[in-house]
Write a structure and sequence with these properties.
By secondary structure, the protein is mainly alpha-helical. Helix content is 98%, strand content 0%. The N and C termini lie far apart (163 Å).
Amino acid sequence: EELTSQVQHLRVDKENADRENEAVAAHNSQLFAENVQSTRENEQLRSSLMQSNAQIEAMEVEMQTVRSENEELMSRLDQQVPVEMDEVARQVIEGSRHLHQLHNSIHSEESRQLI
């Protein structure tokens, strides 16, 4: 009887251990599925991050190109403005001389008319 009782206790212990093992196996399976899902999400995020980084790099290259173009335009402007200003000054002086000539011509004409 004592052996039968011990065998019965061992069977109950084994059934309890089997149930615990099944619960642990189910929990491990759930954790594995969550891990697989997290890995997928991480890969998607990594891919998205790499795309964003590529876009940022392309924008930085474009910004550098625009900076270079702006520097070139400013350089050309710095070279052209003095030349253009010289031309404008020459035209103003020429126009001023022409006005003086007209003014003198008008006074000469008025003087002739008075005489």
